[in-house]
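Why this split exists: single-chain examples teach little about how molecules sit against one another. For that reason, every record in the complexes split bundles all components of an assembly together and asks for one structure covering all of them. Below is a record exactly as it appears in the raw files.
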Amino acid sequence: MKPEQDYKWRDFERGYVITEPGSSREYHTGDWRSQRPIFDKERCIKCGVCWIFCPDCAIRFDAEGYAEMDLDYCKGCGICSRECLPGAITMVDEEG
Amino acid sequence: MGKRVGMEVSIAASEAVRLANVDVIAAYPITPQTHIVEHLSEFVNNGELDAEFVPVESEHSAMSVCSGSQAVGARSFTCTSSQGLILMSEIVYCTAAMRLPVIMVLANRSLSNPISIWNDHTDVMSIRDCGWIQYFAENGQDVFDHVLISYRVGEDRDVMLPVIVNMDGFSVSHVIEPVELVDQETVDKFLPPYKPDIVLDPAHPVTMGAIVLPSCYTEAKKAQDEAVKASMPTILKGWQEFGDLTGRYYHPIEEYRTEGAEVLLVTMGGIGETAMWAVDQMREKGRPVGLLKMRLWRPFPFEEFRKAASKARMLVVVDRAISYGGPGGPVASELRSALYNEPKRPLVANFIAGLASRDVAPFDFIEMVDRAEGACKKGMEPEYEIYGVRE
Amino acid sequence: MIEIRFHGRGGQGAVTSAELLAYAAINEGRYAQAFPSFGPERRGAPVVAYCRISDDPIRIRANISEPNLVVVLDYSILRIVDVTAGLKHPHGILVTDSKFPGEKVRADLNIKGKLAAVDATRIAMEVLGLAITNTTMLGSLVKASNVIQKDSLIEPLKERFGRIADKNIAAYERAFKETVVLDG
């Protein structure tokens, strides 16, 4: 998909239909973040509560089953940190 | 030419919907549209029409159902009036922007408040800029024909826009009059099956109705404006082909006795027929008065209108709606703006008449022409007047 | 063009009368138009319906203010509605339900033109068992004027009334026979 500012009026599909499924993945909402979550594997019990609550579906699990954040999409809302039962997620300020 | 059959115009509209072999009907009953819905539900119940009839709980849902159905590739129909239209209006705008060719018959009725079940154009004028193609029918034959024509035009690959067929509530919708029907074979020849390029299908997912950011909204709206304008050749072609099959030819603006006319009455909808009668009476007395009847409201037929109006000294425009605190009637104000940049333009007098079915008789048209002429002689450019109001 | 105005009470079938007459005329290959004076329908309230018949396409879509013919479906309406308003003089015809002779109606209403009277309510009660005078008054109307051919109404009556069509046709025929026409 080309950058939105490059769209001319003739470039839209009829009725503004988006024909490519899942194209919203290309939109990296992680840019909006002012805080990021830090995951402490020592405390994580792999319960998946963070995965359930994340409003952007940005939580994934690594090969061993521990939760981690896809920072391309994490907006830094902190809901995962607040909901995490064992307190394994800490929010820290983005630098710069 | 087929046989003329006496029937109520609402029934004729339902007959056309049946002949168009629609797949989905979703409508909520409201006066004066009710007879159409009743008749269609009978068709479905009796197995005379193989369609899904969705008895929705509101007009908002009716248009939602129709839009969704159309998006999966089902030919859809709804009809409403007045309050029903403004309740559904949120979706009406989406249907057009999403290029879903739903067809809607509007039995035009005034808007509340005060409550009025009677006829004028205040309902449809509230959604003037909804992006649908908009026809105005003046009799039962027009209504029947334009339901079929609307499907043909709206679903055309070069158009893909929804269409409103406006008919005056009661004074057209409830009248028993002769209508010449078209047989199924002819309809099938005229109206191919609905086959949109892109449909909602889980096997091939697409997104319809997504957001655009301010960086693209302007371009999106330009595309929509161009789409409505670009429908004109297909509209003309649709009328031509329908005429070739039935002998009934239609035009964006119907001219009546305009040869040598210095003054032109302009009407839209059912009062056009009464205006013809009035023009005949004035012509008999040697008065050079003719009539323009607006059949196509969107896309606005600028070229045809300017050509038709160019020779007249004055237009007497009869509106059936009012823009409160604004420039008068919506039709007159659009005609004025269509003429503004013309090197030579007629004066435009505007009367708002026939609100809530108040009778507009032949002598009323004559009176309007007299009044406009009188104002002109005094050197006043007539602005607008609510005709017949008790002072 | 002939313009006809029907006066009745909600539920008596004034609207149906106008419609049936239009169907009959259209079936004759002519042009016709029928419509009610639209309002919130209330049983018993005075209602008006209109019918136009012409050999040419009808180009008028307004109420009828100067009828050639007025049909009154219920004698009691005469007391409360000015049924002869605008009736075309001198050729206008009034056709009315009345349990009194036409001469009395003429005197009571001070009518000079052609007048047709029939006790439609009694005929309807006897034939249909109901005081619905629409089909009865159509028989009277057709007797009083040649606005349509008498038999043209049979098909529309059959179509509208289905299994009770025969009774309605009988009421129609009987009113045709019993109507007394007084020339003006």
